[in-house]
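#structure-requests
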Amino acid sequence: MSVIRLSRLDILIGTLSACLGLLIDAMHRIKEISREMLKEKMAVASSVNSDFEDKKDIMSILVRARMSDMAGGKGEFALTDEAMVDQVVRTTGILL
């Protein structure tokens, strides 16, 4: 009996390890995509003829908040690039 339980435990541990690996890979991919999005959003936000203020996605909202902090003299409170990317990861994790 104990051999059967041990093999079931091994299977469970293997399954959990595989799931954890997939989750970590997905998180790294989301961060990579978020960094690319941030670069694009910052470029669009700095252009004069843009409809950036109308965008409702998470990264656009974060970029607008950062720009507002910088313009309002609160630069020390502005989110860093990595903090903005982490916010997207957290939000995505909540939605999954």
